[in-house]
């Protein structure tokens, strides 16, 4: 696909930057936000803007025209609220009838590596262990809802922790009482997120589940220690105690998309902001 209309449900930090990239590629863009005050900023970027609010029992949208598109990207992470493992899948469930009604054939769901528990393993897409966190359970249930649909094809993209423009990683652990020093990080730069999504659309890679993390995984103490030094912030307190972890493997994505990471090591990002 070299042109067409892409609708991004959830134009936050990642969605807005993605929309700008796809506009430059020649796509028509529709984007949603939850508040009317944000509509103008999207329109100023050349994005057709819509207000869509997902609630526990229903959703509010300004126009169903938003769903008149070739590709729908769902980029709405579950909120950190009680019972989110039930609320978030219900919200996604409310979208499915509209996706069917509109005739959309291609859906990209932005998920997270939080669907994998910390079992000291190399995490690959076929792992079936239950997540440790409620947000991970919410995402995994939502993934399965979308993948079970036969009227459209969904690709699931499981991102690691997001770093990049206007996100200083040195601040991530400032409120943590004591971080685990010797576990690997699973991070990905915003630029790689955007390029990967663009490649999925252009290469028509639908019906897949893909991990998306930097191929290299420095230890927390090394990454966040260096981030703090560069930013002039206090280094976070670190504990040397042993703990469970996961190391997310993105080889499937690299192979299927023939993808080369712009930031294969998150330390490369730190070097770029010195």
Keywords:
single chain; 274 residues; alpha/beta; Rossmann fold; two-stranded parallel ribbon; 8 helices; 33% helix; globular
Structural class: alpha/beta
According to CATH, the fold-level topology is Rossmann fold
- The general outline is globular
In DSSP terms, counting alpha (H) and pi (I) runs of 4 or more, how many helices?
8
Number of strands: 14
CATH class: Alpha Beta
| Residue runs with pLDDT of under 50 for 5 or more positions | none
The rounded distance between the terminal residues' Cα atoms is 38 Å
Q: Element order, helices and strands?
A: EHEHEEEHEEHEEEEHEHEEHH
Kindly describe this structure.
This protein has one domain (5-272): Rossmann fold. Helix content is 33%, strand content 22%. It has eight helices and 14 strands. The strands form four sheets. Strands 4-3-2-1-5-6-8-12 form an eight-stranded mixed β-sheet, sandwiched between helices. Strands 7-14 form a two-stranded parallel ribbon. It starts with a strand and ends with a helix. The mean pLDDT is 91.
Which SSEs are present, and which pair or pack?
Layout: E1 5-9, H1 13-24, E2 28-33, H2 39-44, E3 48-54, E4 59-61, E5 71-74, H3 84-102, E6 106-112, E7 121-123, H4 134-147, E8 153-159, E9 161-163, E10 179-180, E11 187-189, H5 190-203, E12 209-212, H6 220-231, E13 238-239, E14 246-248, H7 251-257, H8 266-272
Parallel strand pairs: 1-2, 1-5, 2-3, 5-6, 6-8, 7-14, 8-12, 9-11, 10-13
Antiparallel strand pairs: 3-4
